[in-house]
Amino acid sequence: MQASVNAERSHEYSASLIGIFTSNHSLYDKLTTLKKDPNGEVARLIELSIRKPRIFKDDASMGREIFDKFRFNYGWAGPEFIRTLYKVGDTKIVELIDKWAVKFVNTFGQDTAYRFYENLVSVAMASGEICNEAGIVNYDLERIFQKIVGEMIAIRDNVVKINDIDYESLVGEFINNNQRSILSIQEGKASMEPTGPLLIRAEIDTGTIFISKPAFRDYLVSQNVSTKEFLHHMGNKVSVARKRLGAHWKDATGAMNVECYILDINSYLSELVDE
Fold first, then answer.
1. Which of 117, 258, 123 is nearest to 201 (CA)?
2. Is 44 strand, coil or helix?
3. Which one of 3, 163, 214, 247 is most buried, by most CB atoms within 10 A?
């Protein structure tokens, strides 16, 4: 706000900060529980597991001795760091960030989905290099870099993958959750009749499944998955058309067309026959 004036000042530049916090429970697990598609959140989160150092196991008082110092000695590095930034200049800062960014890409990989990881590491390591030059700290940056990127690679390969949703499994889950709503047609006759709302039609002879578009769309929304993303990733495996879901079953239901997603059910066929 402007002084003595009820008006907002315009800001020409945006700012992004790195937030650090601790948790006793995995945020990855919480996000995947809340959403089927947590890619946006996961891409902006890096969760490093901090294990108890050996020195803390050998001497339980060492933790208090180390951290108690921060209760009374803090704040002096900020002004020194800012003065060093002015001395170094914008050009040098950008060069340092770019240097660490290239090093990260060469070590971690070039998948743009992990661009936030790249930004985090490059900015943090460039800041560490500036602090080393200013005499604020004296860290082995190469060792730190290899450790952090090694943890990130382990997370990427073993814990969570960004943009790695199994969209076909969503179809399978919807079918399994709506077994009472399936009409199965084989040789022109109903081989399995629904005992609930008719939402799914399986034509065994042609290996085709028709799913009520409104019902499946509501299911995707309930799982926090974008319908457009589903169609994009499924590609030519799914199409949209109108279909009489109740054809060859009951005259009343067979007379009405319903907008449906149409899929090849060869991968689900054995499960449907078993049911």
1. 258
2. coil
3. 247
The answer on pLDDT for 161 being more than 90 is: no
Reported as a single tens digit per residue, the pLDDT across 114-148 is: 888 889 999 999 999 999 999 999 999 999 999 88
Place of tokens 């889950």: 173
Please identify which residue in the block is written with the tokens 């034509």. 203
Which residue shows structure tokens 């960014």?
101
DSSP string, 183-225: EEEETTEEEE--SS---EEEETTTTEEEEEHHHHHHHHHHTT-
Looking at the whole model, is its pTM more than 0.85?
A: no
Per-residue pLDDT band for 1 (boundaries 50, 70, 90) equals: very low
CB 264 within 8 A of CB 207: yes
- Spatial neighbors of 173 by CB under 8 A, at least 6 apart, are none
CA-CA distance, 173 to 208, in Å (whole number)?
17
Phi-psi region of 133 (alpha: psi -120 to 50; beta: other; left: phi over 0): alpha
Mean pLDDT to the nearest integer, 248-256: 68
Task: Tokens 């382990």: give the residue.
Answer: 154
